Amino acid sequence: MPDFKPGPLLSQIDSPLDLRSKFQEEDLPQISQELRDYIIDVVSHIGNSHFGASLGVVELSVALHYAFNTPNDQLVWDVGHQAYGHKILTGRRDAFPTNRTYKGLSGFPKRSESEYDTFGVGHSSTSISAAVGMAVANKYLGKEDLQHIAVIGDGAMTAGLAFEGLNHGGVTNSNLLVVLNDNCMSIDPNVGALKEYLTDITTSHTYNKVKDEVWNLLGKVSKFGPNAQAIAQKISDSIKGSLLKQSNLFESLNFRYFGPVDGHDVINLTRIMKDLKDIPGPKILHCVTVKGKGYKHSEEGNATVWHAPGVFNKDTGEIIKIAPKSPQPPKYQDVFGHSIVELAERNDKIVGVTPAMPSGCSLNIMMKAMPDRAFDVGIAEQHAVTFSAGLATQGLIPYCNIYSSFMQRAYDQVIHDVALQKLHVIFCLDRGGLVGADGATHHGAYDLAYMRCIPNMIVASPMNEEELRDLMYTAQLEECKGSWSIRYPRGEGVMVNWKTPFKKISIGAGRKVRNGEDIAILTIGPIGNHALKAAEQLAEQGISAAVYDMRFAKPIDEILLHEVFTKFKKVITVEDGCIQGGMGSAVIEFMADNGYSAQVRRLGVPDRFVDHGTQAELYAECEYDQTAMVKHAQEMVQKHKSISIAG
Hints:
Rossmann fold; alpha/beta
């Protein structure tokens, strides 16, 4: 890895105190440029990181740490992939090249990593609620001089949780500043009425005329000392009097609204933030930014691609892809994307739904082919689920595609609005299992367990692309109507020729994929392909392992399990999900309920939060990769043979 060299000013900053004590306001533009250059240098080489979001808030990051007394003042970043500049300014500059690598820095703010990371994030729209809680707590503790700042993107503002935080924050009368980073993007372009509302504010000529007068007045606030509140009221009144339409959303929630301002004018931002510190109560500062700012290939190119481009040539903007030597299997998400279009062409009741992840889950394929039948509802998982339930009541068949870890945010809706009413909604849970560099906030470790305990829910996971297609096909059939959860992992599958004809799968039916005599390995999902390789390795050592692809965690294949426990006294279960409550637990429940006695070892995600790394590294750490399966099988079989010989 290259020896990354920060610029002459950035190299002197090991903490925000250095930023505040060593430099003047006129130095901030150069510091911002050096910070931007450093992010570009590192991310272009390591290639496993987010990119555009952090470039868009470089000036915001510098201004926030210059104007506020962090870490005493509480700075909360929303989502977190916009926080690279923040990390570099807060003592992690030299460690930044380890970002999102095994045992390296997390790609998101993390409380255990730094005192400057006041709140751990990864999922969107949590910042306002967290900052409100901090503000209320410090008011109660008599620390009313502390500031509390939530930095939230306009995409994250579409989630219900953000509005819940605003609703409560507006009546707390605490030192709370919400910085709205408005760039019209989350990962894909934003959708919805809020986007249109912010566009109206940003482009209003009347608004901007009054805005200039307001900022001229605001610049004098700090000189008024105890009269600052009166000045702030005058500012508020001037906005309301001229621009009732534009100001009514945030003002109606009792937030003083300021902006929009240029989010890339670091000196002006710093001065504004210093003045806002003197205005008590809840406030919103609306900053207009450009995602990927300062890197022309990102600014002029596809912002979705430059959200996380991988390795690229920083000079030419060429995204570097290593050409495969032979045809490669597709990503599971693309199998979903193409298969739902095929199914929708056959069945005009099928529609697709995603909460702001059309590219990530490949629903964009259907959105292009059938724009009137595919819906991006914004970062709003709860709405996505209940919206799907509403579609189902009218006879449509929604495939609601949500990342496994994001589905956790809509759990009540899954139970109350879908399963309880026995509605025909098909949840396709992308990123099931350990996802890699995104780490603990994004691992889809729990869906097998949390879906399995819900009545009326069918819970399945395919071993390969063919099974994914067949499960998607089966789920839309009239005779298979019900609430479905079909989960699959991040990344590539195992089949080059994957466009197989659709076939119906019997609900609850697994299959034996390899015969064996000494031990049975029961798997669910693509981890079963690792089990097949483990069985081959065991065969070379004289151990005969049978492999069963259970396919369904609920209803589980009882006929298959009767066969397993009648024949085998040594059983291993393997799943790319949490051990507690998952498929392995279902197997043990069956064994106990039916009076069988066998030694069963469950392999999967242990009862702890797993950090980031490659999927292979994390499978090995959690001991359910091929090597771990072989080791456990050896231990169990050899111990059994030793006991038999001794007996």
